[in-house]
Design brief:
- The longest helix is centred in the N-terminal third of the chain and has 7 residues, at about 25-30.
- A hairpin with a 6-residue loop joins strand 13 and strand 14 (about 185-200).
- The protein has one domain: TonB-dependent receptor, beta-barrel domain (Maltoporin, Chain A, Beta Barrel).
- By secondary structure, it is mainly beta.
- It has six helices and 42 strands.
Length: about 750
């Protein structure tokens, strides 16, 4: 398969980095419909979404490093692209069936793809307009109100001008019942439109223009709050005056007790998530001469999002008094835009020596709009009492990059890629009430602003042992830009604690050895990679108290993390009828340096600096949200039927080992086992299939968020215990865990018609 992970078409076997690629045929045969499906079949990649398909809810984990986007700069360890265009919002609603392929690149990709890719990048490649008339129509239906339809058509308009048009729609009613209302919850609806033009005015110039539009209309995501009554350790007493109770063991989900105040949210504008996305892109390729090519890539993405959220996650009001009443029932409107421009010059200096250099510019903006809450007593909708300002976040990234690739001889190829970037981040707080000053950063201008510089090299070497075996090595550095926290805890004497405001850059060095092999006369392939990662100042979430009983998650620097790992992928055609694949990943991600106040509290800290240092060390713990073992197996059996037909059966099994929710390594999600089946008939241009997903109804939560549960009361104040030394920031809210529940088993059928070509 050809891939474009180094911004040029190359065989996946000749690329000296770890890549997983899914062609359109793979997507259809395996029934992949989401980024989570792709992650389950990609070793070393785990994807969860804590809060449905809303911005900032994506939590990808690549090579033992997890991402939580709580900072204001939207910095991530894994970034998403559509045809090389940066996508700052969530990729979850991206429709897969009309794509040409999906490329998953593991390890630092900053040298080629820039910002936010220091652990990996995912590129969605859309279809290129064809020079013959062709197309496809597909319709699916299933239980739980699932229905979907997609189609595309492509062909020539005139000499040198061709087009592509694609559309998709799907709807799903949901599988869980909201106990508060008796209605289904977790439903999703998506609509996609894409148009592309490809123009080749001369033999050495081509221009491609793409315009896309997308809408989603989702119910409130399915989340369950495990009750405080299940907590089994770390209780508050005189020996532990700051402890907030905790749960140790595997999550205990209860699908029959999902309880969300969607009825109240409907008064403000609706529960769930609505997204409108517009995407425009243009690429220009100019083959200046036999040795030189200039490429321009321009992209723009605009997201408008409306979110209605019951942030109690249990249909109750954690603060049912005074002006705080109803603050957990939140309705927000936000907007995010991304503009990027890249110019790249490729030049063959001599035979075997290829030079690349260019420049990149990116500008991203996120604006907070309306923020409302709903009083559950008098049913009035008004401003959220804990939101007194609107945040405008601006990111400007400028970079220059270059690289040289040298084919030394028939066996050896080496390359060096470099990128220098400046990331300017500013966060402006606009007060709702101009007479009420805003605290934080620079209180006079209500502005956080800083510039982060990075220099990210990658050195690669490829050795062709023989026609069937390629060995490679690479060393790469990646950085994740610094960030700010818009909300920070208060000091004991009042006012914000600015020590929490800035978040240092993450830096990582990746050292990798790998092999890409063919055997059995080309009928089988095995790719394996081993890597070591040294990560400094890793950014992880920490829950802190804002006052009035409310908490928020902020980003904090763990200190240092060390990761060792192995990734294995194999495909084999066992017979003319039977093919199979196997993937496996082992990841050992260990925190090497980190003092955690939360850990100290669990261990009985009195709040003093000495106790925090003595009891808060989490060195040796496993990084949260990282499965140590991942495994997938898939097989397809297909036999001829009649003159131009065939029948087939496909099955796949994905396993993901239990993951710890937090750095304390106490609460974990449990193992996931997802099994799918598909059987179908192909007759000429027609195909009909029946399928099942998660057929054994695995109910393991896809994510578990450390949270609070005040339904049965609060904790005694830390100040009531004589042993307490410092109680600042010690909440009276008991801990619990909010669990995002998975899609249950689902069955359906699909019919597909392909024409032309």
């Amino acid at each position: 398969m050809l891939v474009s992970v180094r911004k040029q078409a190359e065989s996946i076997r000749d690329v000296p980095i770890s890549v997983a690629a899914f062609s359109n045929e793979d997507i259809k045969e395996l029934g992949l419909t989401s980024i989570e499906d792709i992650a389950l079949l990609t070793p070393g990649f785990s994807f969860t979404s804590a809060f449905g398909r809303q911005p900032g809810s994506d939590r990808p984990t690549m090579r033992g490093i997890s991402t939580v986007q709580n900072g204001v700069a939207n910095a991530s360890a894994v970034a998403y692209f559509v045809d090389g265009i940066y996508l700052g919002g969530s990729p979850q609603s991206t429709e897969l069936s009309n794509l040409e392929r999906v490329e998953v690149m593991r390890g630092p990709q900053a040298a080629q793809f820039g910002r936010g890719t220091y652990m990996g990048a995912i590129n969605y490649i859309t279809r290129k307009p064809s020079d013959v008339l062709e197309g496809e129509l597909e319709a699916s239906a299933g239980d739980d109100g699932y229905a979907a339809g997609t189609g595309w058509i492509s062909g020539p308009l005139t000499d040198g001008l061709s087009f592509y048009m694609g559309a998709g729609f799907d709807t799903f009613d949901g599988q869980y019942t909201n106990q508060r209302t008796g209605e289904d919850v977790g439903g999703e609806e998506t609509m996609n439109l894409t148009g592309k033009l490809f123009w080749a005015p001369t033999d050495n110039v081509d221009v491609s223009f793409k315009l896309g539009y997308q809408e989603t209309d989702d119910d409130h995501f399915v989340i369950y709050l495990q009750p405080r009554s299940l907590n089994n350790c770390c209780f508050r007493n005189d020996a532990a005056p700051r402890a907030r109770e905790y749960y140790q063991g595997e999550a205990v989900p209860d699908e029959n007790n999902v309880n969300l105040a969607t009825d109240l949210l409907d008064l403000a504008g609706g529960s769930g998530v609505e997204l409108e996305r517009t995407l425009a892109a243009m690429s220009i390729n100019w083959q200046i001469n036999d040795r030189m090519r200039l490429t321009s890539l321009t992209g723009y993405v605009d997201d408008e999002v409306q979110t209605g959220l019951d942030s109690s996650y249990a249909g109750y009001d954690p603060i049912p008094f005074g002006s705080f009443r109803g603050a957990f029932y939140m309705y927000d409107e936000d907007e995010q835009s991304d503009f990027s421009q890249e110019l790249r010059l490729d030049f063959d200096i001599t035979e075997g020596v290829h030079l690349t250099f260019g420049g990149y510019y990116y500008e991203g903006e996120t604006k907070e709009g309306v923020s409302l809450s709903i009083d559950p007593v008098d049913l009035e909708v008004g401003p959220n009492p804990f939101i007194d300002s609107r945040t405008i976040e601006d990111i400007e990234n400028m970079a220059v990059f270059g690289g040289v690739n040298w084919q030394i001889n028939d066996r050896w190829n080496v390359g060096l890629e470099l990128r220098y970037a400046e990331d300017e981040i500013s966060v402006k707080e606009v007060a709702d009430d101009p007479a009420d000053p805003i605290e934080g950063c620079d209180s006079r201008a209500s502005l956080c602003e800083d510039t982060f510089e990075s220099f990210t090299p990658r050195l690669t070497a490829l050795y062709q042992l023989n026609d069937a075996v390629n060995l490679y090595a690479n060393v790469a550095q990646g950085t994740k830009p610094g960030d700010f926290n818009s909300d920070v805890p208060d000091l004991p004497g009042g006012g914000p604690d600015e020590s929490f405001r800035a978040v240092d850059e993450e830096e990582a060095w990746n050292y990798e050895l790998g092999a890409k092999t063919l055997f059995w006369d080309g009928r089988a392939s095995v790719n394996v990679a081993g890597f070591y990662l040294d990560v400094q100042d890793q950014q992880l979430t920490q829950v802190i108290e804002l006052g009035g009983g409310l908490t928020t998650s902020i980003l904090a620097n763990v200190g240092e993390t060390e990761v060792w790992g192995i990734e294995f992928e194999s495909l084999v055609n066992l017979t003319d009828e039977l093919s199979a694949g196997l993937t496996y990943a082992w990841t050992d991600s260990e925190i090497k340096e980190r003092i955690s106040t939360d850990e100290a509290d669990l261990q009985g800290s009195d709040g003093s600096f000495a106790d925090i240092q003595a009891l808060g060390n989490v060195s040796g713990k496993t990084s949260p949200r990282v499965p140590e073992n991942q495994f997938s197996l898939f097989a397809r059996y297909q036999r001829p039927m009649g003159a131009d037909g065939s029948w087939y059966v496909t099955g796949n099994w994905a396993y993901e080992e239990s993951k710890f929710s937090q750095e304390h390594n106490l609460m974990e999600t449990g193992d996931r086992n997802i099994v799918g089946l598909r059987a179908g008939i192909i007759m000429g241009q027609w195909e009909f299939s029946v399928w099942g997903k998660n057929i054994f109804d695995d109910d393991t939560p896809v994510d578990a968020l450390r949270y609070i549960d005040r339904r049965s009361g609060t904790l005694p104040s830390c100040t009531t215990f004589p042993s307490a030394v410092a109680c600042g920031g010690s909440s009276t809210s008991p801990r619990s865990f909010a669990m995002t529940l998975p899609r249950q088993d689902q069955w359906g059928a699909t019919v597909r018609y392909r024409f032309g070509g």
